[in-house]
Amino acid sequence: MVVQFYFGYWSLFSGQTLYEPWIYQMYNIFFTALPIVWYAVFDFEYEKSVLILNPELYDLGLKKKGFNLKVFWGWVLFAFWQALLIVAFVTYVSQNEGAIIRNGN
Questions:
Q1: Which of 89, 71, 84, 93 is nearest to 2 (CA)?
Q2: Beta carbons of 91 and 7 less than 8 angstroms apart
């Protein structure tokens, strides 16, 4: 959704959308709902008995090595960088003659 923010800045926050409405719904289904269901059903690395016998396997989460503020802000900055590249690429391509058909024919 950062791409939409950059597009809003580029279009002077006119309210014009970059994507069709059905694309937003597909995004909500495929990138927010389905991954949660997928990981809830299929994500397990060890059997319960192994976890009970080896509590050191929990150290990664307890010491916040996998997710902390530094990691979070790193991912946020990476998302903004990717969105900027996408908008710049699409803007560049759409400005070239012959890249897209302007009258819809």
A1: 84
A2: no
Dihedrals phi, psi of 103, to nearest 5 degrees: -95, 0
Q: How far apart are CA 57 and CA 45, in angstroms?
A: 11
pTM over 0.85: no
pLDDT, tens digit, 9 for 90 and up, residues 1-57: 777 788 888 788 888 777 788 887 888 888 888 888 988 888 778 888 888 898 888
Count of residues making up the chain? 105
Give the three-class secondary structure for 98: coil
**Distance between CA atoms of 14 and 47, rounded to whole angstroms?**
53
Tokens matching residue 40? 């809830």
pLDDT digits (tens, 9 = 90+) for 51-71: 889 888 888 888 888 888 999
Q: Enter the DSSP assignment of 30.
A: I
Question: Which of 22, 27, 38 has the alpha carbon at shortest distance from 2?
Answer: 27
